[in-house]
Inverse folding.
């Protein structure tokens, strides 16, 4: 099937197998390997990207379903001069990542959360990130990072 | 420990307190043969109980019990001593100072996300007076680091960090001789100003100084270099105390961790942010083991929790913000006085949370539960059908 997706503002049109998942399209066809494949079962959230601005787990979306739509991956967040997105900057400042495997998905889920709820409480951050798993951080500093990115004071 | 406390009618905190090894008993030889280096075990417990408001929490527990509140409050304590850097191996470290004044360090303890590279750079920056941005830490390539052990068992800072410290000590010793020649002074009269990163004659601050670039330029190969192997020959023994506060819905068996207060003492802290990061991660995983995570198998031995769709991995929504109590009791067994922090919070949090769940259920006659304390297990214990449920789950 012919699939044309606007990835980070760039048109990527490729002939792919019908069964191709969006995450494979992003990694193999668009050449953007920032989006990680974790569990392949919609459980871990490592592959989270934005589809028309909404966060989706790209291991459970067919590339064909995204045909004609716009996708943003972690590579699409930073500015043209490489300047980090406020959420990326906050993850770095707050030590919101250790091994880094969950980080692209965590960041995309956080961007989606802040678009819906610009000033979330800590509990709202926790609830919103429930679909994204992290083994390293105990989530504490991830919550700190999202609070900082929202412009609120980090107090713990 | 808690069963014993209940049996003799003593508070579980007090049972631990009267049995602790006292600070003046170190180094302490245990009957099985370990030599504990340093510890402030009672202080760790006292600080955690104070930070948590233990007396108030016990009063709240009594109030709920008296009122027959279906949401039972449970308090769990765990105190621990762990062994770190106990593998019996040492670690490599190399430090070069180049003719442009920049520094490259090679470590055999390959960082894998804990921030060790940053911590090693901070150590060098403090010791040499070189800004962080001029320090590069390299690792993981056997072409560059031919001899190494690795990062595991909470060994990296105490062994890999001490190796870097020792290599930098040797580089400083080389530099002292070179700088003495250049400044026409005795090596004994030279000092490194680690605030400015310059060599100067002691007591003559207005005289000529040399920066690292100038000293490295004078070295044989245009760089200062030392390659060492550090072996402490003995492990270190971090310790700590954790207090967990849980609520158990006695009608459904659902357990919610409300608070966890943790003192994890691993000696002096090089990087507070990554130190706390290690403890956060340990807490998350330790709590998960007590409440949720378990590998299950069917009767043929096939795993039934083989994917993250089946395995109850803990999420952000099931954890509270962590409350960390800071302590730093140094060891004398390595150059930095540090112990390991990688696993510490995992060790304290699992029994603390589990003890809290059992404590919440004490008025219902529950004295034991298997981990993890899933709702079905708690509910079964409360309804007196524990054995039936166990049988059911095995089938």
């Amino acid at each position: 099937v012919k699939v044309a997706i606007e990835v980070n503002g760039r048109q990527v049109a490729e002939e792919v197998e019908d069964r191709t998942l969006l995450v494979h399209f992003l990694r193999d066809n668009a050449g953007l390997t920032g989006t990680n494949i974790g569990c392949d079962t919609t459980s871990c959230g490592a592959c989270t990207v934005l589809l028309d601005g909404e966060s989706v787990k790209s291991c459970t979306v067919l590339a064909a379903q995204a045909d004609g739509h716009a996708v943003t991956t972690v590579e699409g967040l930073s500015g043209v001069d490489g300047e980090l997105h406020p959420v990326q900057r906050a993850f770095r400042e707050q030590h919101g990542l250790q091994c880094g495997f969950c980080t692209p998905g965590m960041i995309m889920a956080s961007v989606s959360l802040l678009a819906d709820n610009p000033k979330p409480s800590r509990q709202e951050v926790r609830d919103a990130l429930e679909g994204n798993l992290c083994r390293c951080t105990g989530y504490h500093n991830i919550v700190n990072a999202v609070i900082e990115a929202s412009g609120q004071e980090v107090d713990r | 420990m808690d069963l014993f406390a209940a049996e003799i009618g003593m508070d579980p905190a007090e049972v631990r307190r009267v049995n602790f090894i006292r600070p003046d008993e170190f180094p302490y030889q245990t009957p099985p043969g370990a030599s504990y280096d340093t510890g402030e075990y009672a202080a760790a417990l006292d600080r955690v109980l104070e930070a948590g408001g233990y007396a108030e929490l016990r009063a709240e527990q009594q109030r709920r019990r008296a009122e027959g509140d279906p949401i039972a409050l449970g308090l769990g304590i765990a105190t621990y001593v762990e062994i770190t850097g106990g593998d019996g191996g040492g670690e490599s470290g190399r430090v070069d100072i180049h003719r442009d004044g920049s520094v490259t360090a090679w470590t055999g303890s390959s960082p894998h996300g804990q921030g060790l590279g940053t911590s090693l750079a901070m150590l060098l920056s403090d010791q040499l007076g070189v800004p962080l941005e001029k320090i590069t830490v390299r690792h993981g390539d056997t072409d560059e680091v031919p001899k190494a052990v690795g990062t595991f068992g909470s060994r990296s800072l105490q062994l890999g960090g001490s190796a870097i410290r020792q290599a930098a000590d040797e580089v400083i010793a080389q530099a002292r001789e070179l700088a003495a020649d250049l400044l026409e002074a005795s090596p004994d009269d030279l000092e490194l100003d680690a605030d400015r990163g310059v060599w100067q004659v002691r007591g003559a601050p207005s005289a000529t100084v040399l920066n690292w670039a100038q000293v490295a330029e004078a070295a044989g190969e245009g760089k200062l270099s030392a390659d060492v192997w550090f072996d402490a020959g003995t492990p270190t023994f971090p310790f700590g105390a954790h207090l967990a506060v849980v609520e158990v819905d006695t009608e459904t068996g659902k357990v919610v961790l409300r608070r966890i207060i943790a003192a994890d003492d691993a000696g002096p802290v090089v990087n507070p942010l990554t130190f706390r990061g290690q403890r956060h991660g340990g807490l998350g995983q330790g709590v998960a083991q007590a409440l949720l995570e378990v590998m299950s198998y069917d009767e043929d031995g096939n795993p039934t929790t083989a994917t993250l769709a089946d395995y109850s991995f803990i999420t952000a929504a099931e954890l509270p913000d962590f409350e960390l109590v800071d302590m730093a009791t140094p060891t004398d067994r390595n150059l930095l006085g540090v112990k390991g922090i990688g696993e510490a919070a995992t060790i304290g949090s699992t029994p603390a949370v589990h003890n809290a769940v059992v404590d919440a259920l004490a008025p219902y006659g529950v004295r034991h539960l298997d981990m993890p304390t899933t709702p079905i297990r708690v509910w079964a214990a409360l309804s007196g059908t524990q054995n039936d449920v166990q049988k059911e789950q095995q089938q």
Q: What stands out?
A: The two ends of chain B are 33 Å apart (CA to CA).
